[in-house]
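ok so I'm stuck.
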Amino acid sequence: MDLLGAFKILKRTLNLFAGTPGAEETWATSEEAFERHFGESYADYATILGHLSPEQAKLFAATLEVNPEAAVIWILSMEEIE
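replied:
not stuck anymore, here's the structure
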């Protein structure tokens, strides 16, 4: 995925967190809370998002709309291939 595409997904993630029931969760509003909740940094999450294929990005966006926490967990469960 290109860098612009990754940025759009990150922005969409933040916008969805702001308008969903999960927004009451502190993990959706703070990088520190995100790390406490998921055990991974937001920077790692963002890095993985930047490597999604177009198909994965579509699946991620669809999951994010329905269940933001599940979408984040799915991304964090991926192993980065170097």
